Amino acid sequence: MAIATPYTEKTDEQKAICEMVRQFADEQIIPNAEHYDHEDEFPEPIVEQMKELGLFGVTIPEEYGGMGLDLTTYAMIVEELSRGWISISGIVNTHFIGSYLLMKFGTDDQKQKFLPKMATGEMRAAFSLSEPELGSERHQDVGDERASLLAGVRARPHRPERRAQAPWADLLHRREGAGGIREHR
Length: 185
Hints:
By secondary structure, this protein is mainly alpha-helical.
């Protein structure tokens, strides 16, 4: 599993990776970021190139097809992507969170099934947060088919049409006093 290493000076490998990501940000992200941001459009062509560069498998262990790099190198990569467009780093960071949770808490079968696809970006992790009555948008329309009913609270994702792009989605939730995480499909 990825760990942080003491940072003193970039290694040759880190320098090469950062230069590759810097060039990618300069040539592919920066010239297109304003378009995608203005149109509120998902940057699929940029994400496809990120898959080709292996950026979704940076911290996933080599045994699952990832690069198995440390968190310090990952942070350097995210810094370069963020320089190009902060939203791109969000795509990679949510994927990192999902893959990290799977590496740390997943069963061996889950790791074998999902991590190789996550390492290539074929399957990407994402998450949606909801805090009813604490700042999340509340909806009174109980007839909305896209809404979810959870513990008596109806919540709807900000962009429900994006969930339809996912091949599958699981819901993990924790309620106060529930004593653990429950999985719903």
